[in-house]
Amino acid sequence: MKRPLSCPSAQPEMPDAQVLGVVERGPEGPELTYVNAHVPVTPDLLEATGAVPPTHVLRFAAPCAESKCTHFEAGKCQLAVRIADGLSPRVDKLPPCAIRRTCRWYVQEGAAACHRCPQVVTRMQEADPRMLEIAGLAHRDRVPG
Ligand code: SF4
C-alpha cells in the first residue's frame, strides 16, 4: 500500500500528528531543532507547553491533507514550491529529520526544501512580510497558528 506523504507544517490536532521539532530563536530568526524520532502528539505533550500555545514552541508533522489543504494545487504543495523558490537557504546540509522518507516538501522539492525548512514557522502572527508572502497570506488576514 502506498504510504501517505507527510506535511511538515501541520497542526497538532490533525490525525496522526507528530512532533517535528522545537522552535528556537536563532540570530537570523526562528530556527527549528529537529526531533529525530517519532514522537506522537498526545494530550499530555500539548499540556506540557502550559500557557504557551504548542504551535509557538513546536512544529508538527501529519499526513498531507492534499486537496483538503488550501496550499494544494495542480497536484503539488504550492507552499513547498514558494519556500524552495522564494526563501534563502538556512543550512547547507540535510537536517536530521524523522520524516524525510515521507515528507511532501522533500519528495517534491528535494534538498532545496530541507535547506530552507528550519526557518519556517507554522504560526504566522510574528512572521516578517516575506514569510507571509511565501505562506500566501500577504494580502489576507493572518490566520491563527
Ligand atoms: S523539508 Fe526536509 S527537513 Fe523539512 S521536514 Fe521535510 S524532510 Fe524534514
Major sheet size, sense and barrel closure: 4 strands, antiparallel
Ligand types: iron/sulfur cluster
Total E-strand runs: 6
Arithmetic mean of pLDDT: 89
Tally the helices: what do you get? 6
Order of helices and strands: EEEHHEEEHHHH
Residue share in β-strands: 15-25%
Helix-residue proportion: 10-25%
- In quaternary terms, these chains amount to single chain
Widest β-sheet, arrangement of strands: 1-4-2-3
Task: Indicate the structural class.
Answer: alpha+beta
- Terminal CA distance reads 33 Å
Structural domain tally: 1
Q: Which spans have pLDDT < 50 for at least 5 consecutive residues?
A: 139-145
Q: Judging from the principal axes of the Cα atoms, what is the shape?
A: globular
Q: How large, in whole angstroms, is the Cα Rg?
A: 14 Å
Descriptive overview:
- It contains six helices and six strands, in the order βββααβββαααα.
- By secondary structure, it is of the alpha+beta class.
- It has a four-stranded antiparallel beta sheet. A two-stranded antiparallel sheet has the order 5-6.
- It has one domain (6-134).
- Helices cover 25% and strands 21% of the residues.
- It binds iron/sulfur cluster.
- Iron/sulfur cluster (SF4) binds next to helix 4 and helix 5.
- Iron/sulfur cluster is lined by residues 8, 20, 95, 97, 99-100, 103, 105-106, 113-114, 117.
